[in-house]
Amino acid sequence: MTPSNPFNLKPKTIEDHNRQAEQALAFFLRDFPQTYRLLAGSRFQVPVRRQADYMNYAHSIYGDAWTFIRATPCRAGRWGQGDRDAWRQVAGEFTVVNEWLKQGQTTLFVERELGEALKRTDLPEGFSPQDLHWRWNAFRLVLPLGLFRVKFRVDDPHQEGWDTDIPIVTVAKVLKRQSLDFHPTLFQETQAAFGREPLGDTWPNEDAVLFSIQRKPTDPKHKKILDFSGGCKLDDRTLRTLAEEIDVAAEVLPFWDSDSSAFVVGIKRFIFNALLYMGSFPEEYEPEEVLRPFSEKKGRWKPAIKAARFLGKEAYRPARRPTGAEHEPTGRQLPGHWRAGHWRRQAFGEGSLQRKLIWIQPYKTAGPDA
Question: What letter does residue 348 receive in the DSSP assignment?
Answer without folding.
Answer: E
